[in-house]
Amino acid sequence: MKKVFVFIGIVICALAAPKMEAKAQIIDGAFRRTDISNRKPMPLPYIREADVMWSRKIWRVIDLREKINQTLYFPTVPMEDRYNLVSLLLKGVEDGLITAYDARTDDEFKVPMTFPQVKEAFGATTRTRKVRNFDTGEFEDKVIVGEIRPEEVKQFMVKEEWVFDKQTSTMNVRIIGICPIREYYREEDVNLENAQRQLVFWVYYPEVRDLLATNSVFNPNNTAQNMSFDDLFIKRKFNSYVVKESNVYNNRAISQYLSGRDAMLESKRIEQKIFNWEQDLWEY
């Protein structure tokens, strides 16, 4: 009889072991969230060239210092499997998932860049500097290993095209490319008075959509409904201002012929022109 009870006890422990193992699994939160890495980009409606009766390319800047755009700037260091936008793009380039294109030549995605070239564009190069040795009082050569500073990216340039589809009678927009804008100070500018801005590299948006769709953006209003980077861009959940439109003057930027308040008004005029073009097709 005693052996029977021992056998029953062993069986009960064996059956309870999987349950105890399941209880040991740690969930960092109140519920288990779905794995965003399995998400796919939202498919976009196909646009036939024959149905496009009007189009215009626009270049706009997203300033990450604006409150609505800070979800693209933070976290400055990866946490909880979340990256900010520039860190995600850099990781994609380093892992060979996406291609970076040189922004110094043009914005037409002609010259691919390797990850070491991207690091060089960020100023993350190994160099030798003269450093004073406080023990001897003499200057000595010191090798400084450069590092990419994602926090230097304060803005993004977005290239897009607005088209009117006569088949569906709708105005649509397609993002073509995204380019980080680095803001930094020269070494000799010890007082940090003259900020330098540099277009670092372009990425072709249709190519990076798979990567953007599998990484979430923090929702400050409701963390139970975080969206992906791709959702944020497709749904236009950001604020920006126009800096250039396609034109006959070599696609010159607004800053080349206007400045200050006039440049701001010109940016608003271009946006209003696109809105009016669609609205003026209808009669109320």
Could you explain the architecture of this structure?
By secondary structure, this protein is α+β, with helices and mostly antiparallel strands. The chain has a domain at 54-120 and 150-186 and 195-279. The chain is 26% helix and 26% strand. β6 and β7 form a beta hairpin. It is flat.
What portion of residues belong to β-strands? Answer: 25-35%
Largest sheet: 8 strands, antiparallel
Order of helices and strands: HEHEEHEEEEEEHEEHEH
- What is the tally of helical segments? 6
* Class by SSE composition: alpha+beta
The value of Rg in angstroms is 26 Å
Mean pLDDT equals 88
The CA-CA distance between the termini, in Å, is: 92 Å
**Helical content (DSSP H or I, runs of 4+):** 25-40%
Overall shape: flat
Low-confidence stretches: none
> How many distinct beta strands?
12
